[in-house]
Structure to design on (159 residues):
């Protein structure tokens, strides 16, 4: 049984513990869907104030919904569209304090207020994006971004 109790009071510790738990979860498992599914569940359980956490995979140059936690979401997102598509096209983290002010934001869930999207790249290939949504405006700060980038680096090796 896996029982990761991650209850850090500060963000650097939270994300350091999460990265260690994720490393342990994916160790030796080559299936990318299984690893994305467990990563989404771990993040959902451990990171407060989220209403969506999951993945869009790069399938032939289009983002296609992958494993996630949260409400039913849009299935296909072209590169360049919305926050996820911007992260995929630029291969750069998108940290959006107010999604309603983001041109082209795709509102899968009207309760989402802020969003953080981390591209996952291996050998110069975009594998997927990791997408977190929050119902709170300005939910994600630079420490969240650094922590999620760290998780993305763990995942890049196993997706
Ligand atoms: N809001 C995202 C779409 C994906 S959902 O948030 C799950 C976007 O604009 O890319």
């Amino acid at each position: 049984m896996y029982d990761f109790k991650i209850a850090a009071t500060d963000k650097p510790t939270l994300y350091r513990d999460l990265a260690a738990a994720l490393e342990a979860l994916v160790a030796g498992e080559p299936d990318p869907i299984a690893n994305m599914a467990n990563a989404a569940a771990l993040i959902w359980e451990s990171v407060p104030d989220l209403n969506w956490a999951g993945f869009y995979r790069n399938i032939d140059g289009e983002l296609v919904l992958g494993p996630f936690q949260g409400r039913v979401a849009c299935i296909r997102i072209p590169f360049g569209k919305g926050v996820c598509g911007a992260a995929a096209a630029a291969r750069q983290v998108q940290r959006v304090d107010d999604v309603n002010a983001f041109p082209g934001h795709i509102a899968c869930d009207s309760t989402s207020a802020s969003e953080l999207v981390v591209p996952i790249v291996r050998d110069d290939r975009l594998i997927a994006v990791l997408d977190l949504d929050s119902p709170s405006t300005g939910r994600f700060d630079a420490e969240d971004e650094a922590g999620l980038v760290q998780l993305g680096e763990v995942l890049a090796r196993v997706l």
The pocket of methionine sulfoxide is lined by residues 52, 73-74, 77, 82-85, 105-106, 108, 112, 115, 131, 133 (CB under 6 Å). The CA atoms of residues 121 and 127 lie 6 Å apart.
